[in-house]
Predict the 3D structure of the following.
Amino acid sequence: MLKFLLPKTPLLLKTALWHTLSMSPTSSKWDLKTEITVNMLRDMMGPNSKSTPISKMQRLTCKDTGVKGKLWVSKIKLDVPEEDDVRQLVFKAIEEMGTGEEQWTKPDSQPLEAEWDGYRADAKDDQPEPTVMSEKDKYDNLMKETKSKVTILYFHGGAMYLMDPATCRPLTSRLAKETGGRVFNVRYRLSPQGPFPSALLDCFTAYLSLLSPPPGAFHNPVPANEIVFGGDSAGGTCCSALLQLLLQIHRSTPAGQTPTVKFHGKDVEIPLPAGVALTSPWLDITRGLPSIESGIKYDYLPTPSQTDKREFPKCENWPANPPRADLYCEGSALTHPLVSPLAAQDWSSSPPLFFSVGEEMLRDEDAVLAQRAVAQGVTVVWREFEAMPHCFALLLDGLKGGDVHYEEYGKFCREVVEGNKLENNGVFIAAKTLQRRDLDVRGGLTELKEEEVKECMQKGRERIERKFNRRQDPSSERPML
């Protein structure tokens, strides 16, 4: 830690001084801890930072550091179904929703790895998990502390190529506490090793595994009306893409019939979940909308103009072989609705959607989708936090606004599972006072028109493809965290 912090001492001192003297542009909105955290992240990810090989970053961010504190964790690994029906259903939806020009590789199915996370009320903050318990015993103890029917199917963030379920355990423990329920925390395949649609196939398999437990599962079947999809950042990509996949399966099923799929020897119905709860979701893989550049005042993510000048050092995982323009997918697939869910036009019949966002670089794409969904009859709950960066509640522990985020998130999950009728509503929450101001989710979130959005996404795709064609080295396109 000292080796890392010592070179940053001038930055830390300057940040602290400017904040104390109220000379930084954000000192009126942020406390000192937020100011230091965001500036450190900017320095680590900014134009002068040193690029690290993807394989090294994955080794650093996918470590399981163990379980301790107020958390139950029960790990599970479920076999691949003998049938190929799930896989083929995903491929069919991709083809139906595309233009026919997209290039993508059909991945194999893999065993599903996940963990059940729950709140452990009586544990001390530094208390390790019991070492003599089996995973089944841990699950049974987790269930004893579950107080509601809420099951969150959670997909972690990390730009589709970083992170692991273990890294977000403090988050999932908090969600379990706020909802009184439990979290099914999924390990989906990371890019670039598992490009689109590998992660989508894993996410769909996880949902089916909740609905109809495969051999070796600890849980009983979970009704769809007790399941909420949850995810942050790239996990929000997974949530919204999985929802679109389900909506497409329903659209392609004859009216009056419920879609089914053969899964571990059973015909399993595929209903929609109770709701979808999104935290700073990444909905446009092209990173083409205006706030990606204009939202930098309160954010720490690198802009496209910064990442265009960078290259990932070569490693065993990147560049891909054969080469492709983006870590997650081929350039031709960047605007496919199951890659960039912002490109999906039809959200009608969707269950209620919850958005928690800051004044961040992804705000435009989130606002466009929320407003589009409302116009199509979908219930949307929008919570926007003044001056907050991307995934602020996950990064800034102890922030009062973060507590509000978790409270609102938990309330939404409980209400949709309990069957309470929600109304469209939007709230803007002030940074320090937490005062609330109503927002009109029908037309007051963004002035961007649909044609502008489509044009921005197309330009974003062209930017990525142009760089790839120019250098034949797509590693210069560094995705956001």
